[in-house]
User: Fold this.
Amino acid sequence: MPEKHFPTTRLEAFTDGVLAIVLTIMVLELKVPHENGMAGLLSIAPMLFIYLLSFCFGGIYWVNHHYLIRRIERCDHRVLYANLLFLFAASLLPFLTAYVIEKESDSFSVSIYAASMIFTALTFFLLRLAVERLLRSEGRLIPSDVATQRKHMASLALYGAAVPLAHFHSYIALGLITLVTIIWIMPTASTEHCPPDVLHE
Assistant:
């Protein structure tokens, strides 16, 4: 019995909607400072940093999800369920961001935050493998797919290091998470890693 395949349009639309909500509701955790002027803004600078870090984290996944899914015209059950698992992980981001802000980036909250990064990265890696399985069956895998997998594994290792590191110095652990974010932003901002069909749309 042949495997069923489905158009990717609903998957993209649903994912866009969920990620848009996730990125939007995070800003609700930012509170107006009691102090006036620059002193007030400086007092909430750590909160703004955590919000920015989480927003970039979610935004990078949205961009990479777009590039990944646009490479296939139809998806199978593996892609659908992997995508749902990824969205579940991503939907936890507002809560975990609020948790870190509320606990003022203490060791435990940052370690949980880093652990959530691992979980989300793993779910997206599963989605990538599901999509690449379809690309492989069509003979459309490209050399950068292997390089991206290696970078994904390196990111998991850095997130993993941030978990125990947070118990010694939470801000260094946040710096390590920020480094991973920067690593992913650089290629994302360039078109050299985009598939040809994405470049010419």
Summary: The chain is about 75% helix and 0% strand. The two ends are 35 Å apart (CA to CA). Residues 188-201 have pLDDT under 50 and may be disordered.
